[in-house]
TrEMBL record:
Quinolinate phosphoribosyl transferase N-terminal domain mapped to chain residues: 28-112
Quaternary state and interactors: Hexamer formed by 3 homodimers.
Record bears the keyword Glycosyltransferase: yes
Organism the protein comes from: Salegentibacter flavus
Protein name as catalogued: Probable nicotinate-nucleotide pyrophosphorylase [carboxylating]
């Protein structure tokens, strides 16, 4: 996974680019009718149920737009939210509040949806050893926000991108000439380039599970699109030699049954690619 410093740089880039995209050469609506020295106060009003996420991000946005804005947080990230709740107040220059408004709402609405979905999966897995993981199926440009929301919802992050972990999937294996060749070539590549990256290998059937186990240095086996019975068999074959991860169309309805097969992780792209934004608004008071 990426370091804390790298993650913070990603968040700063997201804010910088979003402000540039939205404000351009000026918020002319506000400039036209609100005096430059006008001050005001607004509240983040919740209109939905779920897990609140993005409060800390909102504070970073306000700080970036105008460090003189003052905030009072009433509900923290990861908390249950309900209609009519007030998550926080922001007070200061009115033009600054309006500049930050849409970025704050866009981010918090999506992050809260992702955190809510993740919490649903985490609750389903409660009592098992299995943890829920996200994937790279994220919105381009805001991956750091979406993965942050997964953590807030009680999940764990998979690799951040193509650079922080090796993941040999079906196409890699086929292009490389098979499972064993793909693993051998990868280990040689890491050695030559002096890279210390974990290796995950996808298996499409039990025969590939057995073949992967013949190679040393595999960190995790991705048990992809297996049924329950074959998943249990795969876990028995692996027998703790490396970590295990189930993936492939796993839903809230089926997650518990896969967890009970004994896998360490379940990964689901649905955490980030199939959510409906939560309803939040920023209202002047």
């Amino acid at each position: 996974m990426i370091s804390k410093d790298q993650f913070e740089k990603e968040i700063d880039l997201i804010i910088t680019n979003a402000v540039r995209e939205d404000i351009g050469d000026g918020d002319h609506s506000s400039l036209a009718c609100i005096p430059a020295n006008a001050t005001g106060k607004a509240k983040l009003l919740v209109k939905d149920t779920g897990i609140l996420a993005g409060v800390d991000f909102a504070l970073m946005v306000f700080e970036k737009v105008d460090p003189y804005l003052k905030t009072e947080v009433l509900i923290k990230d990861g908390s249950q939210m309900n209609p009519r709740d007030v998550a926080f107040y922001v007070e200061g220059n009115s033009q600054s509040i309006l500049k930050a408004e849409r970025l704050v709402l866009n981010a918090m609405q999506r992050m809260s949806a992702i955190a809510t979905k993740t919490k649903q999966f985490a609750d389903k897995l409660e009592g098992t050893k299995t943890k829920i993981l996200d994937t790279r199926k994220t919105t381009p440009g805001i991956r750091a926000l979406e993965k942050w929301a997964v953590k807030i919802g009680g999940g764990e992050n998979h690799r951040f991108g193509l650079y922080d972990m090796i993941m040999l999937k079906d196409n890699h294996i086929d292009f490389a000439g098979g499972v064993t060749k793909a693993i051998q070539k990868t280990k040689e590549y890491l050695r030559i380039n002096d890279l210390d990256l974990k290796i995950i290998v996808e298996a499409r059937d039990l025969n590939e599970i057995k073949e992967i186990l013949e190679s040393e240095g595999v960190y995790r086996i991705l048990i992809d699109n297996f049924n329950y019975e074959d998943t249990r068999t795969a876990v028995e074959l692996i027998n703790g030699k490396c970590q295990t991860e189930s993936s492939g169309g796993i839903t809230l309805e089926t997650a518990r049954q896969y967890a009970e097969c004994g896998v360490d992780y379940i990964s689901s792209g649905a955490l980030t690619h199939s959510v409906h934004n939560k309803d939040l608004s920023l209202k002047a008071i």
